[in-house]
Structures are given as C-alpha cells and as structure tokens.
Amino acid sequence: MPWIQIKLNATNENAEQIGDMLMEETGALSVTFLDAHDTPVFEPLPGETRLWGDTDIVALYDAEADTKLILTQINASNMLAEGFAHKVEQLEDKDWEREWMENFHPMKFGERLWICPSWRDVPEPDAVNVMLDPGLAFGTGTHPTTALCLEWLESLDLAGKTVIDFGCGSGILAIAAIKLGAAKVIGIDIDPQALTASKDNAERNGVADQLELFLPQNQPEGLIADVVVANILAGPLRDLSGIIKGLVKEGGQLAMSGVLDTQAEDVANYYRDEMTIDPIVELNEWCRISGKK
C-alpha cells in the first residue's frame, strides 16, 4: 500500500507540540523527528537563503488522505509561520521491515570487537562478536555514547577481571566485557525491563552464566569491581557520584558516558577527589570520561 509523507521544518521548542497536533488533529499515522543539521530534508532554491529551524518533522498518512486539507489544518493551528517550509511526497509500497533491516550493518569497535545484527553474516568469525539486534531495547551500539564505552572496554585487558555495568540497559556493554575476557560481570539498572533485556541478550550470546543482574535495592552490600562502566546521563552521574566511585576498587578503572561536551568538565569534577581523570574523549558532541582510582 502506498503512503503520503509530509515533511515540516520546526524547532526543538515547538516540534513535540506540532507532532501531537499532527497525530490528534490531522490523522497522521506516525510522526518522526529528525535533526535538521544532520539529515536535512529541505534544500533552498538557487540563490535563495532561508533561516530554517533545527528539527524536521516527518508525518506519514494513508495514500487517500487529503493533503490540501491537512496543510490547511496545520496552517490554522498557528504553530508555524505563514508559508511554512514543507514537502509532500508519495511513497511507493515497500517491505518496510526489510528496508529497516537493510540499514543495519555489523559495527567494529577498536581492533577486535564487533556488534552484529542476527540477520547479518559475521565479518570476522575469529574476532569478538556480540550478537545484538537494533531496536530490541536500550542501546545497540549505534549511539556515540555506547560506541565510546565499547571502544574503551576493547582497549582494556579484562582477563580475569570483575566488571560492573552501571545502568546496563540492553546489556551490550556487559556482554561485550564478558566476550573480551572478563571473569564476571554485574549489571545494575533501575528498570526491571532492562534486566530482562540484558538477560535475554546474554542468553542469545551464550554468556548468561557469567552475568549477574540486580536492581539497585537488591545488589549485594560492599560490591566492588576492577572495572566500572556507566553509560547513563550527566544528572545521575553527578547525583550518584559517591555510589559510583564506591563501586571501583583501589587501582580500578572507571568510564562514564551519556555526557555532552558542555557537561563533561563539570561531571568530571565530581570524581577528581578519588580518581585520576584521563583526557576527555569526544565523539559527535558526546563525551567519555575515564580514570583510575
């Protein structure tokens, strides 16, 4: 079945409100937000200069939808300026699931670690391969923060080490640590669904017997590890700095991400009293903070 796609240009401030309006008032079947700087969907005409917003909205409609009526409704909402930037496109019928799957490829981190979707061939059978399907839950390696943590883990000698994945999500970092040689890995997350996802992914990778999973209130007392990795957000990294530092044994190593470049120094300062902090590493405006206790 064909579809109609309407693209609008908005700002971070009004995009969500416009998206709600498109769903509730114009009958959009789905609404997607894109970073207009990374994936621009509008091109100015030759010789034309326009000031665009920073968020593009893509709304999908049934092929029978009245686009003139939809555009009139959008205009009547007064959420966008008169003559707002937009595109109307007809989409051909496709196998969208297969189209989505084709966009994901094995990703390599460091010298020997691969994250591979289950429907793809493993590029290097003798490398360290983690099988994890995009979209299952909570992180699959495509985000810069996950990539930064995977590269850090790959650079370490984890043989015989105990690792804690604080905020384990999908379990991608925990599973990678096990496959990189860690003797024991402990995953901690506040979301029971994250623990379920981590368990399922560990079983899929054949390492469930080396992974222990806990909600924070259930974790053992006095828990410490040789290596701790925490890919969460700047706020929790600041608020929970005492707890996170307490998980790292003397001489142990810590890496944290989920931090923007504008937040990194502030977050690092919460750890300098007990940690020697390495130079901060940045990837696409996201940062990794690492150090030794």
UniProtKB/TrEMBL annotation:
Keywords attached to this entry: Cytoplasm, Methyltransferase, Ribonucleoprotein, Ribosomal protein, S-adenosyl-L-methionine, Transferase
One GO CC term on file: ribosome
Binding site for S-adenosyl-L-methionine: 146, 167, 189, 231
Cellular location(s): Cytoplasm
Ranges in coiled-coil conformation: none
Transmembrane portions of the chain: none
Primary enzyme class: transferase
A Gene Ontology BP annotation from the UniProt entry: methylation
Catalytic activity: L-lysyl-[protein] + 3 S-adenosyl-L-methionine = N(6),N(6),N(6)-trimethyl-L-lysyl-[protein] + 3 S-adenosyl-L-homocysteine + 3 H(+)
EC number: 2.1.1.-
GO MF annotation: an example: methyltransferase activity
Family of the protein in this entry: Belongs to the methyltransferase superfamily. PrmA family.
HAMAP family named in the record: Methyltr_PrmA
Purpose: Methylates ribosomal protein L11.
Stated name of the protein: Ribosomal protein L11 methyltransferase
Species this protein is from: Vibrio barjaei
Primary gene name: prmA
